[in-house]
Amino acid sequence: MSDKITTKGMERRRFIRSSMQMALAVSLGGVAGYSLLKSTSKKMVWQIDPFKCVQCGRCATECVMTPSAVKCVHAYALCGYCDLCGGYLKPDPNARTTAAENQLCPTAAIKRQYIEEPYFEYVIDEKLCIGCAKCVAGCTSFGNGSLHLQIRHNECKNCNECAIARVCPAEAFQRVPYDTPYMIKGGFTKDSAAKTIEKKG
Amino acid sequence: MTQLKRYFLLICILIYTALQSFGAAEAKQRFPKPEFANGYTQPNTTAPSPRFAFLEYFDVFMLLVVLSVTTWFVLKKRSRRGVFWMSVFSLLYFGFYREGCICSIGAIQNVVLALVDPTYAIPLTALLFFLLPLAFALFFGRTFCAGACPLGAIQDIIVLKPIELPKWIQKVLGLIPYLYLGLAVLYVATKSEFIICRYDPFVGLFRFDAPFDMLILGILFLAVGVFVARPYCRFFCPYGVLLGWMSKFSSRHMSITPAACIQCKLCSNSCPFGAIDEPVAETGKRRSNVNRLMTYFILLPLWIGIGGFAGSMVHVPLSKFNKTVYLADQIIEHPEVKNDPKNIDVRTFLGSGKSTEQLIQEAHDIQRQFYRGGWILGGFMGLIIGTSLINLSKFRRREDWEPNKTNCLSCARCMDYCPVKKEA
Q: How would you class B246 by CB atoms within 10 Å of its CB: exposed for 0-12, middle for 13-18, buried for 19 or more?
């Protein structure tokens, strides 16, 4: 008698188990199918829209990497090669020289080189750059804005959610397709930014 | 003299640009690029490429291989040593080499974001990282936890002196993962943030680089993990909840003994995770037991209701972690922040040209979402508590020592303790 009950019980358990398994498989398949409709086979990476960036300085402190994977890049085609460079020199510098006290960059990551009268070339040493955007702010407000921040993909860990994006006040961080991983000024303009948004919409 | 010349030039340019209509972008340039006499060529702006995209698919392939081999070790070879070395491999590959990203635990958030945000396209690799371990768990149990999860692996290799926590502590702490999962979904659904990734205690150790507090948290987890085996997996991991659901109804879950159990009890202390169920016989009167079970079933909707109400009550503090809500709150509560030059968020908002009304409206909408989410989250927690009570009071006669399919991590430790040999 009790044996019969047990076998009955076992049958019932097995039935419940397999039907629950089926139900879970179906729901998993449902989630998979629905997400698949909205999936992309492309790898996505993070990038900063330089036209949205407000140079708040958080890129230097919030990145999971030390120093930050965000670096200042220089769009040379936009540079005015100024002697009085708003990105290189502190406001009211003692002299327009490479002396440390005149430099805006806290790590002296910008190399200033004389080209010809009265022009100077500015090159970023990315090994030293910490992405603090002090030079970007200077160049954007007093110059052409040729200095700007970009995520360098040789440094970036491509976190699932970028730690800087989470706190960026200007929402300048976005996921971009792997094959166009940069928004370097010159090639990338405000108009092209608007176009990509239109395309998305 | 040259400087004077330069300034004169600048002023001319400024006047020129001011007179120009603001048409093409080039015309807005304050200082046009000079023409160099000495043949200077400008350097190119470098753009180092990201990691090759196909390597992401290679990661998925590795996950599939590791899952298959681990499952084979657990179910066919019944080899703890094999599982151990697989987990070491996963720790090295997914942990230290891939630096903990992407992982299946975090992929929950990508899937949820794909479900709620029409503008978000989920990478196929993230979707596969989410699905594969669940699909395996649905058939073979949580072999992902045993051999493929780097977070599990780093904890598993330091289980040196496991102590058994009292059952009630295990039950209570075991509710945290459900809450964590619920909160993670809530914060993704409101597009606030990915909390699972943010509070991943081990990713900093994998990268040898983390904020100080997260590094401390990771070390703390490992220190506790020497005595309380795999604390993150058992008492925090939100993905473990999903895996547990799948595993509970799996058809080919591992068993402690390869043949019939001989009731030798040698395995009873072998599980450091408290995931072995002992044989039980029904105690007490059947009638009162059934009555109690019925009462808990009837109480279930009440739990859901209470939970949902409680969840909706805390939606305001929960929503403060959303940055839009926080900013609006700051501006309403402390209008003086508008004059604070150091408050970056307020400065940026004021510079953006958006009106305060717009911001408050946005924050209000987000708070509405949190209100609804609070009901759902609370109701979910009520359901979990209610069903835990039902599970506690329901008697399922068990004659052998069996792995608890929900909590068993398939680590295969217990198998080594079983003296029964496989039938030929």
A: buried
